[in-house]
Amino acid sequence: MTRHSIAGALAAAVLIGACDSPQAVTPAPTGPYTISSTNPWAGSTVLIRSADFSAHGHGAFVWLGTDSLPLTRVDDTTMSVTIPDTLGGEFAPQIVVDGITFPLQPITVAGYVSYREYEPQLAWDIYAWPRTGPAVVMGGSATGLTFIDLDAGTVTTEDSIIDLHSIHGPGPTYRDSVFLLAPEGGSLEAWRPLPAAALVDTILPPLSCYCRQAMQLGPNALYIGGGGRGWTVLTRTDSTQPYTETLIPTGAVSETEGAYLSPTHDRATITVDNSDGGIPVFNAPSGTLAYSVTELNRSTGVDFSADGQLLALVGQAPGQQFTGRVLLLNAASGAVLGDTSTAKVVFGVALDPVRPLLYVGEYRVDGLPSILVIDCNTFHLLGKMSVPGTAPACNTGCYKAVIALSSANALYLVAAYNPPGTQAYRFTLP
Question: Taking Cα atoms as reference points, which of 319, 425, 318, 306 lies closest to residue 362?
Fold first, then answer.
């Protein structure tokens, strides 16, 4: 055998040996798999990590309730999944990798959980009060000043202390837990409604108050909301003198929709359908104008932080239509701390009393509401809690709806502008 034939034979033997050697086999996935948050917001994205993802993950998905959710690769050991915005409550998720199912940690999704309707209908202006403890809303109804405890599901009414033909709802005052009410006859009175309704004093005599809103900024300053004229501030030098008009809007103003006073009683503002000069913020107790929020010409939601340092407003910017604007301000100076626009109409806003979070109501084209969760420090959107299509639509586009927070880690969206009753959408919070 020649040298070349020997070399050829050796090469053939090596090739045959290589063909006969076993192929490398990728081990099956074994886990474990860990999820980045066990209390995610609905509509948020969470991460799932495992060393298995270095060799597996194509076609992997997560079962969350009855939803099959696809995964997106982040890196060699991390995949991401987006929580549907209509989910809420407790879940035992599972991940399926290469056809093998593995359990993930149980999670509680902060999102929509239930709907309930109450009687009577809270007409016109609704306020979330008291602001601590259970979630409670109050407003005028056909039967009187009505309180709905949303946590307990109970309704109580104080009869004959508010006439909706005289005023659209209770008005805040510089005195804690005291509100302005107008019974039949048109007098303006200060009442302490809880624990039992008690008259504090009479502010204006009978036939004096046929207004949309009233707010007592101080012992000698009143805000009165109206229709086509918008609003006016009345002041007096002392309690022996009559009130006189000392402040009116600049530019055209249409109907006012609510009045709000800071918990520290130094700033006040309003919701209003249109105000060409911006949204007024008043000094309290003097009743002078502190500044105008010119970024908005329509305000549909207002909230002050518990310490009075922050002011959140939502509404529409000049020239906007069917979109929204969300602002967070330094309440004292009016300096803008956060500003974002939304693709849909916004209404109602609430500052979390404990965490740096802002909750904003958003009205969808399908007639149902969502709650946007915004980080106050970064103004990034953290989640979107949406009411699913199985729930009733929000009456009249959630017009005049409010957000009420509960110490039991719950949030309620309450709407009642039109009959038949008062609608309450409940969401769970982390």
Answer: 425
